[in-house]
Amino acid sequence: QPRLEKDKHLGNYRESYGYQANGRILNNEKENTKGEEFGPIFEKGDVIGCGILIDKKEVFYTKNGAFIGVAFKNVEVPKDGFYPAVCL
Prior knowledge:
The chain is mostly beta strands. Helices cover 0% and strands 32% of the residues. The protein has strands spanning 17-19, 24-27, 36-37, 48-53, 58-63, 66-72. The strands form 2 sheets. The protein has a 3-stranded antiparallel β-sheet, with no helix packed on it. A 3-stranded antiparallel β-sheet has the order 4-5-6, with no helix packed on it. The two termini are 20 Å apart.
C-alpha cells in the first residue's frame, strides 16, 4: 500500500478513485489533480454511496439513494481488493 500524504486525495494514488464534494471525480490514470466534472455537489447531510460492478469493471456513485452514474470504466480490481475510505 502507498504511504499516504496529507495533501493528496483519493484518486491521486495508484488504484484509487474519488468523488469530491464539488462534484468532480479523480482517478490515478489522469495527471489532472483538479479532477473531471461528473455529478452533483454534496454537502453536510447528504449520503454518498459507492459501488463496483465487478463483471462490468465499473465504479458508480449514488447520492441520497439515487443513482448518479458510472464514474469509472475498465476498472481492474487489485489483487488485494478495494478498501473503502473517506477523506474529510
